[in-house]
Amino acid sequence: MITEEHHAIRRRERRAQTRTALLDAAERLWAERGIRGASLEDIANAAGLTKGAVYSNFTGKTDLLLALLERYTRADLGLEMCAREDEARLPVLLLVEFWLYGMRDYSAGWRIADWYAARRDTLAQGFPEENGMPSDQRATLAMAMDFGLTLQRLLDPDRVGADTYAAGMRLVLE
Amino acid sequence: MITEEHHAIRRRERRAQTRTALLDAAERLWAERGIRGASLEDIANAAGLTKGAVYSNFTGKTDLLLALLERYTRADLGLEMCAREDEARLPVLLLVEFWLYGMRDYSAGWRIADWYAARRDTLAQGFPEENGMPSDQRATLAMAMDFGLTLQRLLDPDRVGADTYAAGMRLVLE
DNA sequence: ATCCTTGGCTACCGTCGGGTAACCAACAAA
DNA sequence: TTTGTTGGTTACCCGACGGTAGCCAAGGAT
Lengths: 174, 174
Description:
Oligomer: homodimer
Number of strands of chain A: 0
Number of domains of chain A: 2
Shape of chain A: elongated
Largest sheet of chain A: none
Distance between the termini of chain A: 61 Å
Helix content of chain A: over 70%
Strand content of chain A: under 5%
Number of helices of chain A: 8
C-alpha cells in the first residue's frame, strides 16, 4: 500500500539523489581541474542538471564546497594512499586542494585540521606504544611519510618507485 | 664618461628590474591567494605597474607562471623547510600550488619533477651510504618526511609540535 | 477534480579577468 | 634638432562565472 508519507519519502529521496549527484560531480571535477577550475555550470552539467539545481540545493559555491568537504572528511581514505596509485590520484589531488583552501580560509581550516587529527587518532590506536615513541607521534610520522612519498611518486613514478614507498613506510612503522 | 652602451645597459637593467618586480609580486600574491586567485592586474598593481607591463614582458599569464617556476626552481629552499615556520608558510603554499599545476599540466609537470629530482640528488650527496639503504632513497624519504610534516604542522601547529617534527627528521636521518 | 507546494529550468545581470590595440613619453641614434 | 625605437599606459573587447528572479511541470494534499 502506498501512503502519503510514502510519497513524501520518495520525494525526499529524489532530492537527496540530486544532492548526491551534484556532490559527486563536484568531487570529480574539482579534483580534476581544481576548485576554481570547474564552474557550477560545469558541475551541474556533469551531473545531468543545470546551474539552477545547484542553487536549489545549496546557497552558493562555498556552501557546496563545505558540504563536499563535510562528506569528504567523513568518508575515510584508507591509510597508505599510494598503494594503488592510479586510484589514489584524484582523491589526493582533491585533498591537496582542500589543504590549500584550508590554509587560506580559517573557517575551513579547522575542519581539515580536525580531520587530520581524527585520522591520526584512529591510526595511533593501531600502534602499540613502543620504543619510547608515543603512538600518536608515530601516527603523525606515518601520515607524513605516506603523504610526502605519495606527492613525489604521483609526480614522478619512474624516479620514486614502489620499493622506495615500501621502504619509507617500513621505516616509520618499524 | 657615459657612452651609448652605458645607456643601453641602463635600459636593459631597468627592464630587468620591472621583470623582477613583476615576478616578485606574482610570487607573493600567488602564494597568498593561489594562482587563479590573483589576476595579472592585481600582480601589476602590487608591483606599482599596470597590466600592460606584464604583456610587455611576458606573452601571457602562463608565460609569467613558467618564468616564475623557472626562477623558483633555481633558487633553493633550504632543507627542513619547517624549521622557521612563519617564514616557510608562503614558499610552501606556492610550492603546493606548483605541484598541483604540474600534476595537471604535463609540460610544467616535468619541470617540477626535475626540480624534485635535483633536490634529492643534492641531498643524497650529503648522506653516506649506510645501513644498506641507498643514499638517494634516503634522500627521498627525508624530503617526504620534511614535506609531510610541514603540511600537517602548518595546518595545525598546536597538535603537530616542533618536537614531532624533530623526531621525524631524526628518524629518517638516523 | 482542484489547489498549492516543491524542485528544477531558463533567461538574465554585473563583474571580473585575460588578451589586444592604439597611444605616448622617455630616450638613444643620426 | 630630428627621427626611430623601446617600455609602458589607457581604453576597450569578449567570454566566463557567480548569483538572482521568474517561470513551469510534476506530483502530493484536499
